[in-house]
Design a protein that fits this description.
Layout: H1 4-15, E1 21-26, E2 29-34, E3 41-46, E4 85-88, E5 93-96, E6 112-113, E7 118-124, E8 127-132, E9 137-142, E10 149-150, E11 155-161
Antiparallel strand pairs: 1-2, 2-3, 4-11, 5-7, 5-10, 6-9, 7-8, 9-11
C-alpha cells in the first residue's frame, strides 16, 4: 500500500515535470496520477500489472497512442541489442551523467565497468541517487541525454557483458 506522504511527494514531482501521467504498482496496489491541464487525478486501487507510459515517451508497439510530445531516443543504437545488457532506470527522475556540471561524466561509450561502477545519478524529489551498473562489461551506448527526465524501467545504457 502507498503512504499518504509518498503520494503527496509523487504528486509534487509530477507537477514539477513535463510528465502527464505516472502509474506505479506496489504489492498489488496501483497508484495512477494524471495531470490533465492544471489538475491532478489520483486513483488508488488493486489491479494486475498494466504498464502505462507518459506522453513524454514512446509507448510499446502493441499499444496505440497519440503522437508523443517527445520521441524516446533511438539514434545510434546498435542493430543487434539482444547481446547487450540494458541498465534501466529504477525510478522516475532526472538523469545526470556526472555528479556536478564541473565534473566529467561517470562513464562514456567504450568505458569498462564493473558491478559497483556508478554510471549516473538519478534525481527524484530533490534526492540524488547514484545508479550502479550491477554488471561487468563495456558501455556500448548511452540512450538518454544529460538532464533528461526518465521513467521507471526506461533503458539508460547498453552494456556488452564480459
Amino acid at each position: 500500500m502507498f503512504k499518504l506522504s509518498e503520494i503527496k511527494e509523487l504528486i509534487k514531482l509530477v507537477d514539477q515535470t513535463s510528465v502527464h501521467e505516472l502509474e506505479i504498482e506496489n504489492e498489488g496496489a496501483r497508484l495512477l496520477i494524471r495531470k490533465p491541464g492544471k489538475t491532478e487525478v489520483v486513483n488508488v486501487q488493486s489491479a494486475s500489472i498494466v504498464p502505462t507510459y507518459s506522453q513524454a515517451f514512446q509507448p510499446p508497439v502493441n499499444q496505440p497512442a497519440a503522437a508523443p510530445a517527445v520521441q524516446a531516443p533511438t539514434a545510434a543504437q546498435p542493430a543487434a541489442t539482444n547481446n547487450y545488457h540494458q541498465i534501466v532506470s529504477p525510478m522516475v527522475g532526472t538523469f545526470y551523467r556526472s555528479s556536478s556540471p564541473e565534473n566529467g561524466p561517470f562513464v562514456n561509450v567504450g568505458d569498462r565497468i564493473n558491478e559497483k561502477s556508478v554510471v549516473c545519478i538519478l534525481e527524484a524529489m530533490k534526492l540524488m541517487n547514484e545508479l550502479e551498473a550491477e554488471v561487468n562489461g563495456e558501455i556500448v551506448d548511452i540512450l538518454v541525454e544529460n538532464g533528461q527526465l526518465v521513467e521507471f524501467g526506461q533503458p539508460l545504457f547498453l552494456v556488452k557483458p564480459e
